[in-house]
Amino acid sequence: MTEVIRAEGLQKRYGATRALDGVDLSVPRGSVLGVLGPNGAGKTTAVRTLATLIKPDAGRAEICGFDVVRDAVQVRAKIGLTGQYASLDEELTGTENLVMIGRLLDFPRAEARSRARELLARFRLTDAAGRAVKTYSGGMRRRLDLAASLVNRPEVVFLDEPTTGLDPRARNEVWDTVRAVVAEGASVLLTTQYLEEADALADRIVVFDHGKVIAAGTADELKAGAGRQTLVVRAKEAHRTEQLTAIVAQLTGEVPDVVAETGLVSAPVADSGVLASLIRALDGASLGVTELALRMPSLDEVFLTLTGHSAEQSARAEEKITEGSLA
Ligand SMILES: Nc1ncnc2c1ncn2[C@@H]1O[C@H](COP(=O)(O)OP(=O)(O)OP(=O)(O)O)[C@@H](O)[C@H]1O
Ligand SMILES: [Mg+2]
To answer: Is the pTM of this model over 0.70?
Structure first.
């Protein structure tokens, strides 16, 4: 079995809302699929459907060859799930939380304890293992939550926004643990609002909007597909920035962006042939540059192109969409 997650035509409605509107997914064993999308796009609904927590209205999905509706019991034995909202008992210690999960999974007490110890060590929580979870920082909670989803040695791990609200350092720690999970051979489906997170962790990315997959590919494929690159250039002599800007404007037909403090001039370009023309023009004007590059669009720019709004704006956009659909 090379595919650990396979979904075809998944649909789920809540009243008039099509939370999933015909979603197809395919995740090869040992890989990380990043699911991106604005608020309300259907990411959590997809995760909950694949994790057997809700039933689809139509379509089908398999985890390691088991149907998520018909074979839900077998599916649950294969998966680990970390929800968008942490599911730990605040009053219990780190060890107690993990041992309790092991016991619920029918592990003998000694095995539940050794598995807890092993996971706490891997997630660098050994020092905090005897403390109540309510004393943990956000990053520690998230790591413990991730550890909790691994007690049963799942083949497929679902992570629904595993780093939302964490500072960059705590986020990096969670990223390292996700990489460790993959190194152990598990496959991961990860939803995220942070596009750099998908860029850093995902082998393939799908973008959801309004319950549909609107784009899919590697980060580089999505960036290349978004088309427009950015030309970035800086004059060696600051007093020639204005002349450089005029040349860039003429070649690209765009109004360049100029950062006054750094002298960095940038403009979107549709055709990479612009670079050769620019070099000829600079040579003709004897205008030296210290920086000259064509930059791929960032995943943020790709997301903006695809969904019509940036990842940060998505919460507000969702409100507007909801208003619009009620009207
Ligand atoms: N139990 C439910 N009852 C009614 N509507 C629901 C329910 N669950 C989800 N929805 C709706 O389905 C749509 C998809 O929601 P979902 O939670 O899957 O989005 P999401 O992509 O995870 O969003 P977020 O980024 O905010 O977590 C939304 O419009 C949401 O309001
Ligand atoms: Mg969600």
So the answer is: yes
